[in-house]
Amino acid sequence: MKIDLTDTTAGAINKALVQGRRAIGTPAVGMVLTLVIVTDEENAYDSLKAASDASREHPSRTLVVIRRVSRTPRDRTSSRLDAEVRVGAEAGTGETVVLRTYGDVSDHADSVVLPLLLPDAPVVVWWPVNAPLDPAKDPLGALAQRRVTDTYAAEQPVRELSARAEAYTPGDTDLSWTRITPWRSMLAAALDQVTCEVQTVEVEGEEFNPSCELLAMWLADRLDVPVKRSLSSGPGLTAVRMGTSCGPIVLDRADGSLATLTIQGQPARAVALKRRDTAELIAEELRRLDPDDTYASALRYGVERLNAAPEQASEQPAREPTGSAAEPVAEPEPVEEAAKAPAKKAAAKTAKKAPARKATAK
Asked: How far apart are CA 60 and CA 3, in angstroms?
């Protein structure tokens, strides 16, 4: 069932939700959370479809906030709120309200969303595109326990990671981090199968893919080893190579769906590492609403420090020969002593002869 409301208010929207539930015969509210999607008209359809698919696992009230651009000065002075209420089959297993704001209402969308939140239920805000630099300080982000962004949709994804690290607040998360969950699980399981020390790591993937940087920062932070970031044509992450004291461990995915795990001394195994769609990513994020400390630690490791790690690693071999040659360098000291030895012997002979001459004189 779909109800269209033009130039409406939050109170009228709540009444339409109650009317829709009664019409389809489900007066009770069986939602577990409120998902607020802040997007534009271009990305609204894809975002709403992903949220609808995720609602099969997490029944929720979905509020889609679309800020309409006012093209004329007259439109900018007029404020209006249009709504589209969907319940039943139109909204999957939850309830959906599409809010289109015009004029000054766009700057105060939190005042429209607040009366529509489910009572005593957690709130998640998701920005598919154009996320604020500090989600926690955004008026809508301040209402949520969990704030989901996607650095992959930014113009400069790698630089966006640095901004996210500076403004991180417990509850922030990134779909670029969610994309590498299967990779992190597989690499952790591979290291559990061997008892050895990881010495070097290489992460290979697309150039402008923040998931590659996040995976590299996670490995560098957890293993405390230099991580090399290499480029490939994709799609996405293509390989992780770890050099260990027991031999190389390689997780290679060339086609974006099936990967090969190779461990020294063991047969190669095929691993399913399919690239997941947005609905699966959102469903995973809605499973946990507590702060992700692992993501925070990896994010704060720093992209700049990651990019500098290969240089430090290349300088390290140059220092080791100097340290190992410290003992041969110290060998000239005995040579100098050997050169001074004849002079010492001559001085000793002279010292012995001097008393003999005094005795003769007496």
From this structure: 18
CA neighbours closer than 13 Å in the CB half-sphere of residue 298: 26
Q: With 0-12 CB in 10 A as exposed, 13-18 as middle and 19+ as buried, what is 322?
A: exposed
CA-to-CA dists, residue 295 to 9, 187, 212, 348, angstroms = 39, 16, 14, 74
Contact 168, 296 (CB under 8 A): yes
- Residue 137 makes CB contacts below 8 A (sequence gap 6+) with 167
User: 237-244 and 198-205: which strand pairing?
Assistant: antiparallel
Task: Tell me which amino acid residue 75 is.
Answer: D
74 vs 72: CA distance, rounded Å: 5
Q: Is the pLDDT of residue 262 over 90?
A: yes
DSSP string, 223-289: H-S-EEEEE-S-SSEEEEEEEETTEEEEEE-SSSSEEEEEETTS--EEEE-PPP-HHHHHHHHTT--
Cβ atoms within 10 Å, residue 2: 14
Q: What is the pLDDT of residue 181?
A: 95
Query: Rounded to an integer, what distance in angstroms lies between the CA atom of residue 33 and that of residue 30?
Result: 9
What DSSP character marks residue 109? H
Neighbour tally for 97: CB within 10 Å: 25
- Token readout for 325 is 């040659």
With H, G, I as helix, E, B as strand and everything else as coil, classify residue 334.
helix
Instruction: For 174-195, write each residue's pLDDT tens digit.
Output: 999 999 999 999 999 999 988 8
DSSP one-letter code for 193:
T
This prediction's pTM: 0.80
- Tens digit of pLDDT for each residue in 197-254? 999 999 999 988 999 999 999 999 999 998 999 988 878 899 999 999 989 999 999 8
Query: What is the distance between the alpha carbons of residues 94 and 163, in angstroms, rounded to a whole number?
Result: 34
Q: Hey, is 340 helix, strand or coil? A: helix
Q: Do residues 110 and 139 touch, judged by C-beta distance below 8 A?
A: yes
pLDDT band for position 255 (cuts 50, 70, 90): confident
**Cα-based distances in Å from 23 to 17, 86, 130, 269, 339:** 10, 12, 37, 54, 107
